[in-house]
TrEMBL record, chain A:
<keyword id="KW-1133">Transmembrane helix</keyword>
<protein>
    <submittedName>
        <fullName>ABC transporter permease</fullName>
    </submittedName>
</protein>
<feature type="transmembrane region" description="Helical">
    <location>
        <begin position="240"/>
        <end position="262"/>
    </location>
</feature>
<keyword id="KW-0812">Transmembrane</keyword>
<feature type="transmembrane region" description="Helical">
    <location>
        <begin position="197"/>
        <end position="220"/>
    </location>
</feature>
<keyword id="KW-1003">Cell membrane</keyword>
<feature type="transmembrane region" description="Helical">
    <location>
        <begin position="27"/>
        <end position="46"/>
    </location>
</feature>
<comment type="similarity">
    <text>Belongs to the binding-protein-dependent transport system permease family.</text>
</comment>
<dbReference type="GO" id="GO:0055085">
    <property type="term" value="P:transmembrane transport"/>
</dbReference>
Automatic annotation (TrEMBL), chain B:
<keyword id="KW-0547">Nucleotide-binding</keyword>
<dbReference type="GO" id="GO:0016887">
    <property type="term" value="F:ATP hydrolysis activity"/>
</dbReference>
<dbReference type="Pfam" id="PF00005">
    <property type="entry name" value="ABC_tran"/>
</dbReference>
<dbReference type="InterPro" id="IPR050166">
    <property type="entry name" value="ABC_transporter_ATP-bind"/>
</dbReference>
<protein>
    <submittedName>
        <fullName>ABC transporter ATP-binding protein</fullName>
    </submittedName>
</protein>
<dbReference type="InterPro" id="IPR017871">
    <property type="entry name" value="ABC_transporter-like_CS"/>
</dbReference>
<dbReference type="InterPro" id="IPR003439">
    <property type="entry name" value="ABC_transporter-like_ATP-bd"/>
</dbReference>
<keyword id="KW-0067">ATP-binding</keyword>
<comment type="similarity">
    <text>Belongs to the ABC transporter superfamily.</text>
</comment>
Length: 269, 269
């Protein structure tokens, strides 16, 4: 009995030690990229100051940080339109991609008819098609949402089709033994097994939808991070330009993180 | 009307057991290749048949034929006097695959419940085991693991879940295609004993494909020996061993006699 308790006490010690090592590893893994980023910013700051680079060519990180705080209200005013355009584009683009993927999987003929068109649309550079869409939909919100949706569409379509087809043959045999209907096979087997594929596409879409919204704003908008980028570039307001770029990438990171969290909550297998 | 009743095997005279599965001159062809050639056999209700044979003899094909996964090229296959398709829709049989074929996003319990969900919304009345899915998991020795995902279970445990799932609609015929083929010997022995216990408790008829002679002798009341090129019935060997089988039985002379005999025919198949 006494022996057993010493053993378990030792075991607890070993467990604590193992957890400590594990935690140290994790901290190191996080510290390394953060440390590198900080070092690069410091080098940038020193470089700009040492060589006396004019602010309009390359602002020092301190200038950018100051502008970010100083112009925060303006940044936020321009942030919201881009945010809405990105989110709406993300939702519509992925929704249509998923629906069309389902149609493709259910009917080979639909796939044969429409897949080449989807590939063709995907090959048009988004910068080339953006002005056309702005001409069609006008300078308002719609054109940007369409552009953002378009940029999300193709990767999700391709991944979703692959995901819906990636059902193990044995699962389908099981479905046959159980005399499952087509819709039962879809809801209970095909759709859940496609989710990992869908989420890897949504991760891509989370960052590209922001690109779509900003490209749309370049072509014609008074408000939005894209408009602010154009505006500050033409005014040689580099600190504001950098702060806006920082803001846009922050938006992408947030959307990406939201998708990643949703994935972790939904896909637990 | 009376003529129909007469040929219905479930209405047989008292004394003779009903026929669970019947093949009459059944053949299976894959293109020009004949997998099964005019196979005839009657499986009595409540029996435990193991099916042995060299590779390519059509062991699995025979199970697939009986379970309506593949059609017969000629001849007749019936289950309890019904065409296989009708028996499949009525869930009179269940199938256990070589790999468990569990849905990875469902817990052990949810996997067992799957057959009950299929067809329910369409209003199809299904036979249901008098044991709940939780009780079935207990029966196969998985009490306490109801909420584990398949990825958290060992190969043997996954196969137990598959067996519980097969039992949930109270099948009258259980088709098993090398279910323990990928497991280590200890696990296999254990599951063999458990399967015999389940067979006795439920009175289900079992058709069990294996490539292990000891397993075939240990489990079977009868061993069906098939031969290859083309797949044909070679011999049915009655295994006259005590009903209550234990692992020690394998070391008895009787057991070795059967194994040796089967090995001898297998060599000439």
């Amino acid at each position: 009995m006494a022996l057993a308790s010493t053993n378990s006490a030792e075991q607890v010690d070993i467990d604590i030690e193992a957890r400590r090592v594990e935690r140290r590893k994790k901290m190191y893994a996080a510290a390394l990229p953060i440390g590198t980023a900080i070092a690069l910013i410091v080098i940038w700051q020193l470089g700009v100051r040492l060589f006396d680079v004019p602010t309009y060519i390359a602002p020092a990180p301190s200038d950018v940080a100051y502008t970010f705080v100083d112009k925060f209200p303006i940044l936020m005013v321009n942030f919201w339109p881009t945010f809405y355009e990105s989110i709406l584009g993300f939702l519509f683009g992925n929704f249509f991609a998923i629906v069309i993927a389902i149609a493709f999987v259910h009917s080979k003929n639909v796939e044969k008819a429409f897949f080449p068109i989807a590939v063709f649309i995907n090959t048009i550079p988004i910068l080339a098609i953006a002005p056309i869409l702005v001409l069609i939909f006008g300078p308002g919100l719609t054109a940007k949402v369409v552009i953002a949706a378009l940029i999300c569409f193709f990767p999700t379509l391709v991944n979703m089709v692959r995901g819906l087809q990636a059902v193990s043959p044995q699962s389908l045999e099981l479905a046959r033994i159980l005399s499952a209907s087509k819709s039962e096979i879809f809801w209970k087997i095909r759709l859940p097994s496609s989710l990992p594929f869908l989420f890897s596409a949504l991760r891509i879409a989370a960052t590209t939808c922001v690109i779509g919204a900003i490209v749309g704003e370049w072509v014609g908008a008074d408000l939005g991070l894209g408009a602010l980028i154009i505006d500050s570039t033409f005014n040689f307001n580099s600190p504001l330009l950098y702060a806006t770029v920082f803001m846009s990438s922050g938006l992408s990171v947030c959307l990406f993180a939201a998708v990643a969290i949703a994935e972790r909550l939904i896909i637990r297998w | 009307m009376s003529a129909v009743l007469e040929i219905n095997p479930t209405q047989e005279v008292a004394g003779a057991p009903a026929i669970a599965a019947s093949l009459k001159e059944a053949s299976v062809k894959f293109g020009a290749f004949t997998a099964i050639d005019r196979l005839s056999i009657d499986i009595e209700e409540g029996a435990f048949y193991t099916i042995l044979g060299p590779s390519g003899c059509g062991k699995s094909t025979m199970l697939r034929l009986v379970s309506d996964l593949i059609p017969a090229a000629s001849g007749e296959v019936s289950i309890f006097g019904k065409p296989t398709e009708e028996a499949r829709i009525a869930r009179e049989f269940a199938f256990v695959f070589q790999d468990a074929a569990l849905l990875p996003w469902r817990t052990a319990l949810q996997n067992v419940e799957l057959p009950l969900e299929i067809g329910r919304k369409r209003g199809i009345k299904l036979p249901v085991s008098d044991k709940t899915p939780t009780e079935l998991l207990e029966l196969v020795g998985l009490k306490g693991r109801e909420n584990a995902l398949p990825s958290e279970l060992s190969g043997g445990m996954r196969q137990r879940v598959a067996i519980a799932r097969a039992l949930v609609c109270q099948p009258k015929l259980l088709l098993m295609d090398e279910p323990f083929g990928a497991l280590d010997e200890m696990t296999r022995d254990h599951l063999n004993l458990q399967l015999l216990k389940i067979w006795k408790e439920t009175g289900v008829t079992v058709l069990f494909v294996t490539h292990s002679i000891p397993e075939a002798v240990f489990l079977g009341q009868k061993v069906m020996m098939l031969q290859a090129h083309p797949g044909r019935l070679r011999e049915i060997v009655d295994i006259d061993l005590p009903e209550d089988r234990t692992i020690e039985l394998r070391d008895t002379q009787e057991f070795t006699k059967y194994s040796a005999y089967l090995r001898k025919i297998l060599e000439t198949c």
